[in-house]
Write a structure and sequence with these properties.
The protein has 318 residues and is mainly alpha-helical. The chain has one domain. The chain is 79% helix and 0% strand. The chain is built from 16 helices and no strands. α4 crosses α15 and α6 packs antiparallel against α13. It is globular and about 70 Å long. This is Flippase-like domain-containing protein.
Length: 318
């Protein structure tokens, strides 16, 4: 298994001369994401909004925690691989939104660009991002296969395969890739074995945490629904997540539930409502981070901010 000694380099501050350019690019990206989210929010119906208003109070902090699960566990991965500073958590939040709103894995391209800008290295960011995504995909595929096997009878009763059509078959692509990775692992992975084990443990814990928290939120919202039905829905959600090159898989899942269960189903309305809540959280993250970036720009442009930055740079050269 190849070793990548650059993979553990500490991230360094970006070149100050490029800060303005990156600021404009970040603003353009944020504006585009806000526009995309607002367009998708336009599909909200009165039934879905009513379902959101009836969510129990404890469901809201659980939803926020569920939303932060991906970036928090990503931070645990890249903290070890890159010694990522706390400031990198903002990049992981943006990566999560880009993956969900724009296109699957487009957020990884953003993270790669961010890491190169922050670290000034080429091989290390690519190797770490690639390997982390491969390990995450392998474990996600395993969870999907287990849930699909457990729920096979119920999925057949829902006529799930026929309704999904070619989209479901496209989900076999990542499964086939997983088999290839297992067969040629030594040539595919770049990180050291200890680093891969760390990534695998973190990704495994993330999947467990996500699964438990997702079912908990569903049960809090609709306590009368049986656990078996929630497992079937979880299997469908995982199968949808395996379909490549689609954006906002929560929204796709919510619309699929309306198709499978009918518009009058309380379960379908809940899935659509939670997808809408996730979109609102995406919007809040992008607007919030944009406001933080704007405040930082004003601070750096102020006389006091310039004085502090000059003093820091002068001290760094002494």
């Amino acid at each position: 298994m190849g070793q990548d000694t650059a993979g553990q380099e500490t991230l360094k501050p970006a070149d100050p001369k490029r800060s303005r350019l990156w600021g404009w690019l970040g603003a353009a990206l944020s504006a585009g994401l806000v526009a995309a989210i607002v367009l998708q929010l336009g599909d909200a119906t009165s039934t879905v909004l009513r379902t959101i208003s009836r969510l129990p109070p404890l469901a809201w902090p659980a939803l926020v925690l569920l939303y932060l699960t991906q970036p928090l566990f990503d931070f645990a991965v890249f903290r070890r691989l890159w010694n990522m500073p706390l400031a990198g958590f903002e990049a992981l939040l943006r990566k999560n939104v880009i993956n969900e709103v724009v296109l699957g894995y487009s957020g990884e391209a953003f993270l790669y660009v961010w890491a190169r800008r922050a670290a000034g290295v080429v091989a290390a960011p690519f190797a770490a991002i690639k390997d982390a995504n491969i390990v995450s995909a392998l474990l996600g595929n395993l969870l999907t296969l287990v849930l699909a096997a457990v729920s096979a009878t119920q999925l057949r009763d829902l006529d799930f395969a026929q309704r999904m059509g070619p989209a479901l078959w496209s989900g076999l692509i990542p499964l086939a890739i997983s088999v290839g990775v297992l067969a040629f692992g030594r040539r595919v992975f770049s990180l050291r074995l200890a680093e891969l084990i760390h990534v695998g443990v973190v990704c495994g814990l993330r999947l467990i945490f996500w699964t438990v928290l997702t079912v908990l939120i569903w049960r809090m919202a609709l306590p009368d629904v049986s656990t078996g039905q929630w497992i079937v829905l979880l299997a469908i959600r995982c199968l949808v997540s395996r379909i490549p090159l689609i954006s906002n898989k929560d929204l796709v899942f919510g619309n699929l539930m309306l198709l499978l269960l009918g518009a009058h189903s309380t379960v379908a309305a809940l899935m659509a409502a939670l997808a809408l809540v996730t979109l609102v959280l995406h919007l809040g993250v992008i607007v919030g981070l944009g406001a933080v970036d704007l405040a930082r720009g004003w601070w750096r442009a102020s006389p006091r901010g310039r004085a502090i930055q000059t003093a820091a740079e002068t001290g760094g050269h002494d």
